[in-house]
Specification:
Length: 137
C-alpha cells in the first residue's frame, strides 16, 4: 500500500446570497476595496511601483498574514473578477491559486433584490485538502 496522498479536486466553490442589490455589492468586489467585501481582511492597499497595466493589491488579514493579489480579469458587464495570489507572508504551501468571483442579481422570490455570489478557487496540483481552508475565513 502506498503512502502517497490521495488525489483530490483542485477546485473549491463557495456561494452565498447577500441581502443587498447587485449594484451595491458589485461596488465592493474590487481588489482595492476587498476589505469591505471580505471581513477577514483588515486592510487592502495598492502596491506601489507596479506597471499601470497590472493591478496588484496587498491584503493584510486580521490575523497579521498578508497576500499580494494580481487582477487577471474584470468585467463590469458580466460582474466577475479573476485574480491570482502572487506573494504571501507566511509563504503558502502550494504554488498557485486563481480565484474568480461572479455576482448575479436575484430577480424574484424570497431573495428578490439580493445578490447571488459564487467564489471559485482553482489550486495548483501540489495543494491538498488542508490548504483549501485558507479561503473559509
Amino acid at each position: 500500500m502506498s503512502n502517497k496522498p490521495i488525489a483530490t479536486t483542485n477546485e473549491v466553490i463557495e456561494s452565498a446570497v447577500i441581502r443587498a442589490p447587485l449594484s451595491h455589492v458589485w461596488h465592493f468586489v474590487k481588489l482595492q476595496q476587498f476589505d469591505k467585501f471580505w471581513t477577514a481582511i483588515k486592510e487592502a492597499q495598492h502596491v506601489k511601483g507596479v506597471s499601470d497595466e497590472t493591478d496588484i493589491v496587498k491584503w493584510t488579514f486580521k490575523d497579521g498574514n498578508s497576500i499580494e493579489v494580481k487582477q487577471d480579469e474584470h468585467s463590469n458587464l458580466d460582474h466577475f473578477i479573476t485574480f491570482s495570489i502572487i506573494n504571501a507572508e507566511p509563504e503558502l504551501p502550494y504554488s498557485s491559486v486563481v480565484n474568480t468571483i461572479r455576482c448575479w442579481a436575484v430577480t424574484s422570490g424570497e431573495f428578490e433584490d439580493s445578490t447571488f455570489v459564487r467564489w471559485t478557487s482553482k489550486f495548483s496540483s501540489d495543494a491538498d485538502l488542508g490548504e483549501f481552508a485558507f479561503f473559509q475565513t
